[in-house]
Amino acid sequence: MHSHDIMGSESTVLFREVQRFDQWWLRLLVLVPTSMVWYGAIQQLILGKAFGDNPTSDIGMSILLILFGILLPLFMYSLKLRTEVRQDGLYVRFYPFHLSFRHYPYTNINIYRVRKYSPIREYGGWGIRYGRKGMAYNVRGNCGVELEFNDGKSLLIGSQEPEELERYIHIAMRR
Asked: For residues 120 and 48, is the Cβ–Cβ distance under 8 A?
């Protein structure tokens, strides 16, 4: 889901990228426990057969079904990183952790550059991460745009289109 538009108003979005955690291995990590919980719940709650060697109560099974059979997949599906380049700055929102966008005005950005990185080695994985080199918002892959701020802090924004993101930051900063 990507869209790129150049228009003229103050709130204009020049570049937008929405990324989700939709890697096959992550889907499998969610699908396996979700399937097991649904199978167990059907066996125990509908068919009346106790599930497992040490079965939980029907209430316990209902709680497991709600947590791991419904809420976990919904939560994983809801996760998304939204990056927008607007005329007054860069906006980043990692839903559902950020209820609104984080705004990074261009006047606070000293340097910006596309770079490859190691999500696990440099930041300990994906998501909202803190590493030796600063903070990162990343969902997948190993490329992004690193911002270095006037105060010396840095932020890496993972992107599937890092060159486009950098290009639109450049366009917006020159306006």
From this structure: no
Name every residue whose Cβ is closer than 8 Å to that of residue 137 and which is 6 or more positions away in sequence: 81, 83, 92, 94, 127, 128, 129, 155, 156, 157, 158
Beta-bridged to residue 154, according to DSSP, are: 148
How crowded is the C-beta side of 12, counted as CA atoms within 13 Å?
A: 14
- Residue 157 token pair: 């924004």
Q: Enter the pTM of the model.
A: 0.76
**Cα 114 from Cα 157, distance rounded (Å):** 10
Domain boundaries, the chain: 2-20+81-174, 24-78
Identify the bridge partners of residue 112 per DSSP, sorted by sequence position.
147
Average pLDDT of 108-132?
Answer: 92
Q: What are phi and psi of 62, to 5 degrees?
A: -65, -40
* The domain defined by 2-20+81-174 carries CATH number 2.30.29.30: yes
Looking at residue 27, what is its pLDDT?
75
